[in-house]
Amino acid sequence: MSNPKTIKSALISVFHKDGLEPIVRKLNELNVTIYSTGGTENFIKDLGISVIPVDEVTSYPSILGGRVKTLHPKVFGGILNRQDNPSDATELAEFNIPQIDLVIVDLYPFEKTVASGAPEQDIVEKIDIGGISLIRAAAKNFKDTFIVSSMDQYDRFLSILSENHGETTIATRKQFASKAFNISSHYDTAIFNYFNEDEIVYKASEQNSKVLRYGENPHQKGYFFGDLEAMFDKLHGKELSYNNLLDVDAAVNLINEFKGEAPTFAILKHNNACGFAQRETISQAYTDALAGDPVSAFGGVLIANTEIDVETAEKIHTLFCEVVIAPSFSEDALAILKGKKNRIILIQKDIELPTTTVRTCLNGSLVQDKDSITDKLSDLKYATENKPTQSELDDLLFASKLCKNTKSNTIILVKNKQLLAGGTGQTSRVDALNQAIEKANSFKFDLNGCVMASDAFFPFPDCVEIADKAGIKSVIQPGGSIKDQLSIDYCNENNISMVMTGIRHFKH
Q: What is the CATH number of the domain that holds 239?
């Protein structure tokens, strides 16, 4: 049953007036009685349209500087009454309560006020009380009452008004009620998160959403909740997929470790760097990054920490890649890269990323602080008698940043600020090391003089022994094993330098 209702009366109380005029004029054309208050009332009057002040209904003025205007039984009785309930109808007549069929509300901009850096008192004043109450009341009574809870809904509501001459169905009213509860829950979540300092709870609400073609695989539905436009300017290419987004996320987090440093280029595949290098020019950085694994680079995500120029773009253009990201592109470079229709080109904006990570787990969620620690020279403890050279120290810290952003268990091999190979996502550290050595050898890299980074401690000296036999002469690792001394002793006996950070960087 559609349970049609014709709108004969409306209460309008909004913060933003943009887009409201056509609705007010249409309501007037349909002979709808309009109630309002404050700035909205004046706005309607200025249009030359008749409006009844709420205080004429309540016989009570707006008080406390406008904090209390609509909070009154005559207002909420008009919204919440059940039109098929004889007792409700009797009480409306007894207390002279007008029927209200439509409520239009646009809330105070709490989140924008917080984001502006306003003082606390200004923020508190932007906590809407009357508006949020009107939204909840009208949504609860969707059987009889229509709720428009945001200016984003104005266009669709105007179409409904115009096409149906003010008549609405229960299905439409329920749909808008759902939108209203989404608005109210998001609003309350934002307020709670602003105030909360000591309660260990996880509350999140994201209004921006994007339907993806599918998830990780075609048989899975996929969605992105977030604001991509705040992150990137998209210049070219197809829509980002679920897997693209995972790789882009990994790429951004990795390259952010090298913000402000010399030209650095990364090539990622399945969330891990398969090529990485830092050089005097971005073109050379790309060339040496690609050399790390030209096979895996096929279909990868590419990211740079500085502008991509023509020379670099010409090299990239010969490679099939899904996404290219940089803080900027020269005009000629962009023209070249746009030569592939589906290639996604993104300009990365300099914005703050979330400080927590969230993932589903069993019948709940795991929430943690983001791993915000980047290993620095001042953090290093020199564990061996042999100390690394300055160039080795540079490579060790370079490798450590890569290691932190690679799936555990992982081993990273670096030489002259170039990723030679990585062992990623292995069940044992020995397997990770052997994988890295084998991969580096397959691409004809000379491991003599390279450095090794591990995301966690060595439980036994087998890893440093294997590394030594491969030509690796300097190691960075967290330390913390009860058998650390065994690895230290081997290094001392075989002229290998080792530094410890005291920080583990697991990435499961």
A: 3.40.140.20
List pLDDT tens digits, range 197-220.
Answer: 888 888 888 888 899 999 999 999
**Residue 362 domain-assigned (yes or no):** no
Residue 187's Cβ-count burial label (10 Å; 0-12, 13-18, 19+) is buried
* Nearest-angstrom CA–CA distance, 325 and 306: 10
For residue 34, report the phi and psi dihedrals to the nearest 5 degrees. -115, 130
Q: Report d(CA 258, CA 362) in Å as an integer.
A: 35
Q: Which domain holds residue 473?
A: 377-500
Sequence-ordered list of residues with C-beta below 8 angstroms from that of 306, at least 6 positions apart, any chain = 263, 264, 282, 326, 327
First to last CA, the chain: 52
When comparing pLDDT for 95 and 381, which is higher?
A: 381
The reply to whether 344 and 381 lie within a common domain is: no
pTM of the model: 0.85
- 453 and 408 both lie in a single domain: yes
Mean pLDDT value across residues 35-56: 91
Residues classed as catalytic: 140, 270
The answer as to whether 75 is a domain residue is yes
For residue 63, which phi and psi values (nearest 5 degrees)?
A: -125, 170
Residues 373 and 266 sit within 8 Å (Cβ to Cβ): no
